[in-house]
Amino acid sequence: MKPLYIIPARGGSKGIPRKNIKSLGGRPLIYYSIDCAAKAAERFGGYILVSTDDDEIADTARACGIEVGYMRPASLGADTTSSRDVILDAMGWADGRGIDYDCVVLLQPTSPLRTCEDVAAALEMYSPDIDMVVSVCEADANPYYNLFEADADGFLNICKGPGTYTRRQDAPRVLEYNGAVYIINPASLRRCALGEFKRRVPYLMPQSRSIDLDTPNDWQWAELLFKKS
Prior knowledge:
Layout: E1 3-8, E2 23-24, E3 27-28, H1 30-44, E4 47-51, H2 55-63, H3 83-96, E5 103-106, H4 116-125, E6 132-138, E7 148-150, E8 156-158, E9 175-184, H5 186-191, E10 200-204, H6 216-228
Parallel strand pairs: 1-4, 1-5, 6-10
Antiparallel strand pairs: 2-3, 5-9, 6-9, 7-8
């Protein structure tokens, strides 16, 4: 296995300004993804690539011990830029430098409670005959039980199933992406968008490690969890 670890960290975050280099638990946020990538590389090999359009983020990554030879084009720094475009550009940079890889490991800095063991376990689940291994957790809401959509007359109908479940635990189990780990087949990504993948294997993580930092409230919760750990 030859992973290409991609850590996406653009400079223009809006929900939590400068979050990728903001201190959490005494370290810049990006450190936790770099640390997981470095420890996975010790076990599985591979190349670590920080994808950023921001010089300060690049310098912070270097201070964490990672060489930053690639800078993301400014055109890929908008909040509307797709993850696929960011990954494909980074892959193109790696291809142009003869870096050999057979899977892409996407580690978003916004998942600081992801552990190195999570990354290793997800990598162990990957094989070239699937599109992706993706980390998930049990969803808070369930389309068979407490998620509804309005019909043409404005009346609510259960999203899925007969709508007869009276206990949450009786409804089919549903999972949601938690944003922590993506192990992606490069050929699949070149062929289509992540949302079009048909062969997705879930790696289950507990909700306690599934925080995805997007708002100031998320950050406050993460700080509390770090203090307790």
